[in-house]
Amino acid sequence: MFSKAAYFLTLLSLATTGAYQTCEVPFGGDGVDDTQGLNALLPNCSSDAAIVFKEGVTYNISTPVNFGNLSNVEIQFLGNLDLPKSIPYVQSLVNATTGGRLYWFTMQGTNITLSGNKQNSDQGWIDSYGIPWWQEAQYTQPLGGLANRPHGWSITANSSTVRYMKLRKPVAWSFSLTGNDNHVYGNKIDAAYDLDNPGVFPFNTDGYDIKGNNVLFENNWVFNGDDCVAVNSGNNITVKNMVCEGGHGASLSSGNGVSNVLFDNITSINSLYATRFKSSLNAVGNITNVTWSNIHVHNATFPIFATGVYYDQNTNRGRTPGVYPANSTATHIKNFSWINVTGTISDVYTGDGSCTTDPCWYYVANATNTAAITLQLLNGTATNIQIHNVNLKPVDGKGTPNVVCDPSSFTDGTDNLGFKCVNGPYVPN
Ligand SMILES: *[C@@H]1O[C@H](CO)[C@@H](O)[C@H](O)[C@H]1NC(C)=O
Ligand SMILES: *[C@@H]1O[C@H](CO)[C@@H](O)[C@H](O)[C@H]1NC(C)=O
Ligand SMILES: *[C@@H]1O[C@H](CO)[C@@H](O)[C@H](O)[C@H]1NC(C)=O
Ligand SMILES: *[C@@H]1O[C@H](CO)[C@@H](O)[C@H](O)[C@H]1NC(C)=O
Ligand SMILES: *[C@@H]1O[C@H](CO)[C@@H](O)[C@H](O)[C@H]1NC(C)=O
Ligand SMILES: *[C@@H]1O[C@H](CO)[C@@H](O)[C@H](O)[C@H]1NC(C)=O
Ligand SMILES: *[C@@H]1O[C@H](CO)[C@@H](O)[C@H](O)[C@H]1NC(C)=O
Ligand SMILES: *[C@@H]1O[C@H](CO)[C@@H](O)[C@H](O)[C@H]1NC(C)=O
Ligand SMILES: *[C@@H]1O[C@H](CO)[C@@H](O)[C@H](O)[C@H]1NC(C)=O
Ligand SMILES: *[C@@H]1O[C@H](CO)[C@@H](O)[C@H](O)[C@H]1NC(C)=O
Ligand SMILES: *[C@@H]1O[C@H](CO)[C@@H](O)[C@H](O)[C@H]1NC(C)=O
Ligand SMILES: *[C@@H]1O[C@H](CO)[C@@H](O)[C@H](O)[C@H]1NC(C)=O
């Protein structure tokens, strides 16, 4: 009785309000650019629809896709997507783009769901064939990645979800996610590289760049060569239960306008940084209420790291790290805490393949190879910083964990800090 009534009600609502459509992306066959078929169906499938990349198919997505403005749309990546393998072809597309920034996938709207296939399935992979780009970067000057690299995904949306997506070998940046009330979970980004061959390094393969309010990230996995996740602006952002391998860690990367951020239960494996706050030298602004808790560190060069004086070594060649003019400014940070940070410091093979300058961009004056805590904060730019329950040991069991810390950084003194503020051994108090 009930189900029959529901059935007729459903038919009625379909007839009156416009049906929820399922739009299957047609597969054109070998050598056919499936973007054309996809573009043809988009005008009819941009609201109240599922756009389905079929399981068992490997689509050729040879040109960038602009999904346009979507509402109440779920895009299901059940099959695989192959992006083009020719570097000059892709570079020429990026060259032709105004401003030189090309995203391979672009969309905006409300209530968009990107949905991949099961995490352990061989279906649902989006393969960008980035390895040749990483390899060729070794022979290209200036070092640090090829010119004209495409970005991955630009999603500007509210009340939206990214789940179970699987990206393989991105050329460079993966997700740029802007908007409020978004939920990102169960995704994999595989820009895995050979730790023992630093010459081939996946430059700028940031996992997620996040802007927005009320954003929740959970159970994501990233192996890459830049920020695992970088929070850039917004309020009330939680990143939890995440695994970050290689790369530059769970980052807050911003000079202003970020508050109430929690990074919790992050496992960091063979990373340059496990946790990082980064703001550029001469930034002006405030960042408030940021916590990194329950951080499980395996072999990080800089497990706990904060800098208000970041500058790009590539564009500041010749500048001496650690030496700043007296009138330098920096972002003011307030109520930052690191609680329960345990594991090992990489003291045998420190750093990573992102170092292409001398001195290296991540060189820190006064840091040793066992830098448990490194705070590069200008005079009077930090208030209420607390770092408690730290248990970090050199990975080879030799030496002691050290800290870099300048008492003048803190407007409220060093009593709250949780350890002795010196350039020297870590001594909790
Ligand atoms: C859009 O849907 C309408 C109605 O179902 C159909 O007539 C039309 O051919 C479709 N257009 C495209 C581009 O698929
Ligand atoms: C969001 O979109 C889905 C379809 O992807 C739909 O089932 C759901 O009702 C929408 N939610 C809201 C709040 O409109
Ligand atoms: C792209 O543009 C750069 C200059 O910005 C040029 O050196 C390069 O040859 C161009 N590459 C392609 C494939 O068009
Ligand atoms: C903060 O964001 C979470 C989602 O992570 C949401 O559930 C919660 O309601 C937000 N809190 C406020 C005060 O908006
Ligand atoms: C921490 O995150 C991992 C996934 O990285 C998860 O398996 C584990 O259950 C989480 N622990 C807690 C206490 O939530
Ligand atoms: C620590 O990390 C470095 C650099 O990523 C790597 O070369 C080394 O093998 C790692 N050591 C261990 C013990 O995992
Ligand atoms: C930062 O906070 C200070 C003190 O509350 C305030 O004077 C200043 O305007 C703020 N700066 C920005 C860029 O919001
Ligand atoms: C920071 O947290 C405190 C205590 O929870 C709260 O009173 C304050 O409003 C927060 N600051 C911002 C900028 O949200
Ligand atoms: C290094 O440490 C010494 C002694 O603590 C200090 O005088 C010097 O300013 C530090 N150098 C830098 C660049 O921080
Ligand atoms: C510091 O002073 C120098 C010399 O007057 C000037 O060139 C520079 O712009 C100033 N920097 C800042 C951040 O004000
Ligand atoms: C730190 O770890 C202790 C012991 O495991 C736990 O009781 C406490 O809740 C943790 N603190 C935070 C902020 O998660
Ligand atoms: C820090 O700034 C304060 C106030 O401007 C000044 O009195 C003090 O000498 C400075 N300390 C250092 C170590 O530069």
TrEMBL record:
Task: Indicate whether Hydrolase appears among the record's keywords.
Answer: yes
**Keywords, alphabetical:** Cell wall biogenesis/degradation, Disulfide bond, Glycoprotein, Glycosidase, Hydrolase, Repeat, Secreted, Signal
Organism domain of life = Eukaryota
EC number annotated for this UniProt entry? 3.2.1.67
Location of the protein in the cell: Secreted
Stored InterPro entries: Glyco_hydro_28, Pectin_lyas_fold, Pectin_lyase_fold/virulence
Principal place where this protein is found?
A: secreted
What is one Pfam family matched by this protein?
A: Glyco_hydro_28
As given in the record, the signal peptide range reads 1-19
EC category name? hydrolase
Q: Please explain the role this protein plays, according to its UniProt record.
A: Specific in hydrolyzing the terminal glycosidic bond of polygalacturonic acid and oligogalacturonates.
Family per similarity comment: Belongs to the glycosyl hydrolase 28 family.
Name listed for the protein in its UniProt record: galacturonan 1,4-alpha-galacturonidase
State the species of origin: Kwoniella shivajii
Task: Tell me the classification of the organism that encodes this protein.
Answer: Eukaryota, Fungi, Dikarya, Basidiomycota, Agaricomycotina
